[in-house]
Amino acid sequence: MSLLPDLIIKIIPLILLIVLGYSAGKFFKVEKRTISSLLIYIITPVIILNGIINTELSLAKLSLPLLFFTLATIISIATYHIAGKIWKDSTRNILAYTSGTGNAGYFGLLVAIALFGEDIVGLVVLSLLGLVLYGNTVGYYLIARGNFTVKKSLKKLITLPAVYAFIIGLVINLFDINLGEGFVVFSNNFSGAYTVLGMMLVGLGISDIKSLKIDLKFISFAFVVKFIVWPLLITAVILIDKNYIGLWSNNEYNIMLLMSLVPLAANTVTYATEFKMDSGKAAIAVVLSTLWGIFYIPIIVSLFL
Fold first, then answer.
1. What is the CATH number of the domain that holds 85?
2. What local confidence, expressed as pLDDT, does residue 85 receive?
């Protein structure tokens, strides 16, 4: 449990960004929809492109984004149908989206570096890409269905630039195309904006709430999927690989388990805002899961890693 103080110190800046976002929305009336559009249509595609270009590809490593994309898709679709028996409004769509992803970019990367050092950044990025690809395809479609028909949801999905950024990045990587130092400097600047705006958007979502009302049923459902179902599935995958396949090493196992433990994705607020859903409910759930993750992750890591 000596990990706890170090993790708290590294995560405090994320909490401060949420507070700054809340202040910006409450006192300066910053429009959260504008920021969510920037994240979805400009900043995230650049992050994906840069991540793919700068990652050394191999069968074992390429299987990580495929694994996380597949699990995210299965979990989100199952959640969509189960939640539909409880909620008849867009709550089921928010839950379906957020159940398939997690705060691997803002939260998970910081924790991974604190636990395992800088050498594992590439593995985290690959795992993250699987979740990002899910969020910009299946996840995007499921949350869009809260306000749009199937046809309109698919149309919005086709216009999403993140998917094309992934394909372009893959082509550039496979053909070893050098984009030059200028692109490196340009794309690296987006990483800071991604974290700052993403976490501030959570605070902006909370600032819109007129009266604080915690939806325990919504939060409990999200927590069970994120902190119990995900780790159990990843643990099962690790045991199968250890005993029968042998595709991954201990480094991959550690990152896989850690990525399954991260809190709810801050992008849940981004998409809830984009589709004019209850972003306040989503923001509260994200904040509570982040606070929970500060204590939950060190306990699991101490026991199993």
1. 1.20.1530
2. 94
Say whether pLDDT at 150 is over 60. yes
User: How many domains, the chain?
Assistant: 1
Q: For residue 275, give the nearest of 130, 156, 186, 146 by alpha carbon.
A: 146
Question: Is residue 303 scored above 80 in pLDDT?
Answer: no
Q: pTM value?
A: 0.84
**Residue 111 confidence (pLDDT) above 90:** no
Q: Which of 115, 118, 90 is nearest to 6 (CA)?
A: 115
- Determine the structural domain holding residue 188 and report its residue range: 3-304
